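Running low. Invent one:
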Amino acid sequence: MSLLKRIERGGGAQPGGGAGAGATPPGGPGQPLGGPGSPLGSASGGEQNVELLRQRREAVNIGRGVDAKDIKEKVQRRLLEDLGPGETLDTRSEELRSRIDELFNAVLQEEGIVLARNERRRFHEQIVAELLGLGPLEPLLADETITEIMTVGANKVYIERKGIVELVPVHFESEEHLRRIIDRIVAPLGRRIDESSPMVDARLQDGSRVNAVIPPIAIDGAALTIRKFSKVPLTVQNLIDFGTATVEVFEFIRACVISGFNIVISGGTGSGKTTLLNVVSSFIPGHERIVTIENAAELQLRQEHVVRLESRPPNIEGKGEITIRDLVINALRMRPDRVVVGEVRGGEALDLIQAMNTGHDGSMGTAHSNSPRDTLSRLETMVMMAGMDLPVRAIREQVASAIHLIIHQTRMRDGSRKIVKITEIQGMEGDVVTMSDIFEFEQTGMDGTRIVGRIRPTGLRPKNIDKIIDAGIQLPPSIFGIGR
């Protein structure tokens, strides 16, 4: 029988002054319930104790059934009442965090809620994440093994870990809750998302890429996609360890970058083009002026003299749009040594190729394609999108003379990302652009579900090797598989 029920039935101490069977005798270790000085030594003391234990039991029951949403709403309401005129939840995050701590403790005390230490910490983390972060996505963002987060409505959240997509037991309270999180992401960037403009590209503070689509475009509820960026940019050694390429390949790429080769990094969606562009651009000498142009700023260049430009969508009146092409044209007036375009996807291809052909050697960018040959075809198509009525041969000649190297990366079936071809553009023969593969990935087998293989030289020396030699760089013939 529980202590509370024994007290309720006995009205205090057991007859004879004891505390019931098995009670410690008066004066023994651990003063007995009915002993001298105990609140149960009298009828009034027993009633007080019964009431105290009842209150504690009710508090514990409240704690067990408490809803974090109710606490969060009360803390948020009190916090908004506490804010002064003109203040927002984003103006002073450190001070707001301490205010949230105080209000959280105050609400628990006022509501008579008693929580175990673990539950208290969990509720507190949920409330802080909801008010200052991205709610239920915060633990996923903090997990460095996760590379992508994808939502399908409020109740389905998928992640990509080590190249494999899986469903996780995370959900939002409602569709409105998910929409609030999306608004919190895009608002600081001066962007908007609503029924009249239901799609938006944005970024998190750490550079992670964000895309959001809401109804009526998204049929099953808002779809939020976050492609996470490593807090510490990946290095050449990281990519070598991951099996993306070999030391010899990166030695060759480094020589090409320093020598001023114009480079296009191609690949499919999620193949790691931007990550590779980050690594390749790290080879640019530190004294050069670099202008980067992106839809949403993602590149993490470590050089000192870097100017970062970002496109801008039109406002609610349909005005004020700044396109990638506008930025490329403007960048050429900024005296850049190198122009780096995050992704070439439209008419800006013409202006970038013109820049490469007019003295801005060493420029680079990324493009979606399935192969190096396909990359050239897509560039031709994108040049036509600029609206210039140019003959196909003229476009092809411009592309062939502007681009020196195409690095093609693929996401393999096992989720790994590898450089599968490094192709040099050699020129024109008739109406055809001639190309030669300098390195090519060769699959040798399977280890369970993991692809086994290695990128190997083809044995061909680059036609533009003189450009590398003129830069004072000597590459051993063995890098190209010569003399092995």
Summary: Residues 3-8+46-132 form one domain. The chain has three domains: 3-8+46-132, 135-227, 236-480. The mean pLDDT is 81.
